[in-house]
Specification:
Elements (H helix, E strand, L loop, with lengths): L1 H30 L7 E15 L4 E5 L2 E9 L1 H11 L3 E11 L5 E12 L12 E2 L2 E2 L18 E5 L4 E13 L2 E15 L11 H7 L2 E13 L4 E14 L2 H4 L4 E10 L1 H48 L17
Antiparallel strand pairs: 1-2, 1-3, 1-13, 3-4, 4-5, 5-6, 6-7, 8-9, 9-10, 10-11, 11-12, 12-13
Helix pairs in contact: 1-5
Length: about 325
């Protein structure tokens, strides 16, 4: 009976030992994915800010500027691209909608971001655009990969349509959560005019006048490393119009300047979402594999102990004591 029990325990130990790496290296890449139908909205604010008043064509101090960033999963496009890509693909239709203190639109820039559902690597396909212009992204945007590493990454900048390193600057604690802090500085760079603005200036007029748009920013992200999700983000942002004298009366005009931060209620909601997703990822990469490994070792030890007991020779029964008779 003991030998049969030890064989059952040994089989269970082998099963647990095989399941541990299977969960980490096979199940995790197939289960930890961004859903194709995800919808996310984030509101950022710059308080105060400098903003171009298009009615007076002068830069003015304003109480706040608001940026509403939406990410909407396009399931139909995901399925179309997956047929050729041969892997799970997510298509995000993103929109950065900027409003002034009066709630009126300042600018809006749509994007289509196509990436691998697990690794977050860009997937190049028709429709990859920024503000209607075709682009070819290199590196990440919006989200870091699962199990983010302490290293620099290539990060795509939508304004310049180029990628540049975003640098790992250290590990910090953000509201009780361990996070990796990343920073990127884009130097003054000439960038395209937004296609949607409060006033319409014909492209030919802009070209003839020599008017150009320039931009610089310092980008900061606090990333929860297990999920790769930003729990906070900020930018110190500046935009200018140069060679503007022919149209606006002075050579350089500030279009926008301010320190952009996530609004407090969105910081809280993002933190709660990240905490729940973090547990699911840890179950696949850490908690369950290590628990199965420990269980396999315990079952193996118990199987060997039972086997050793079954092979121990039985103790022979003691001979009955012989009666002692007294001499007559």
């Amino acid at each position: 009976m003991r030998r049969r029990a030890s064989l059952v325990l040994l089989a269970l130990a082998v099963c647990c030992a095989a399941m541990a790496p299977t969960l980490r290296w096979y199940a995790f890449p197939r289960l930890a994915k961004i859903p194709p139908n995800q919808y996310q909205e984030t509101v950022l604010e710059a308080r105060p800010a400098t903003l171009l008043n298009y009615s007076t064509l002068k830069a003015e101090k304003v109480e706040k500027l608001t940026i509403i960033q939406t990410l909407k999963g396009n399931v139909e496009e995901s399925k179309r691209i997956e047929r050729d890509a041969g892997r799970d693909v997510v298509v995000w239709d993103a929109l950065a909608y900027v409003t002034g203190p009066d709630g009126k639109m300042v600018s809006k820039v749509p994007e289509r971001y196509i990436f691998d559902a697990h690794t977050q690597d860009p997937v190049h396909a028709t429709g990859e655009t920024v503000d209607g212009d075709p682009v070819r992204r290199e590196g990440i945007e919006f989200k870091w990969p699962f199990l983010t590493e302490k290293r620099d990454y290539q990060y795509f900048d939508a304004q310049t349509r180029t990628s540049a390193p975003i640098h790992y600057k250290g590990t910090q604690t953000f509201r009780g959560m361990e996070v990796y802090y990343f920073e990127q500085t884009i130097p003054w760079t000439k960038v395209p005019m937004p296609k949607t603005m409060p006033i319409k200036i014909p492209p030919q007029v802009i070209a003839d006048s020599g008017l150009t748009r320039w931009y610089t920013t310092k980008r900061m992200f606090w990333i929860e490393p297990v999920t790769g999700a930003p729990v906070n983000g900020e930018e110190i942002h500046r935009e200018e119009l140069r060679n503007a004298k022919a149209l606006m009366g002075q050579d350089t005009i500030t279009v926008f300047e301010g320190h952009v931060k996530m609004r407090e209620d969105y910081v809280k909601s993002v933190g709660e979402l990240v905490e729940s997703n973090r547990l699911m990822v840890l179950m696949l990469v850490s908690y369950m594999p290590w628990s199965l490994t420990v269980l396999a070792l315990a079952l193996l030890a118990l199987a060997f102990w039972l086997e050793a007991r079954s092979r121990r020779p039985a103790t022979p029964p003691e001979a009955p004591a012989r009666p002692v008779t007294a001499p007559v």
